[in-house]
Write a structure and sequence with these properties.
Blueprint: E1 6-8, E2 11-13, H1 16-24, H2 29-35, E3 41-42, H3 43-49, H4 55-67, E4 71-76, E5 82-87, H5 89-92, H6 95-115
Antiparallel strand pairs: 1-2, 3-5, 4-5
Amino acid sequence: MLMVSEKKNNKNYRCPVEATLDVIGGKWKPLILWQLREVTLRFSGLQQNMPGISPKMLTKQLRELEEDGLVLRVVYPEVPPKVEYSLTSFGKTVIPVLDSLCHWGSEYLDRKCALE
């Protein structure tokens, strides 16, 4: 199968998997998306559900997901400011991918436990 280089957001991708991993890959982005799959959460809610992520890293990952059009950030004009995060309609299209990862991970863990 011949892959054609695609340019998107000033990045060259040699295949669609590379683009997918660039947008949703890493340690935290899939977990953020998974947390937002059914609910809208505030920053503190996301942080509580993901022990180990620093506020700086959570902010960075949320900004990148927002820039890529997967996460919607809504700021309410209150004091102190209230900010909520949810998936965009485009962001919801990644849920089947995450469901597949969850299913595969469950099978892997079952297999790994059976081998021990």
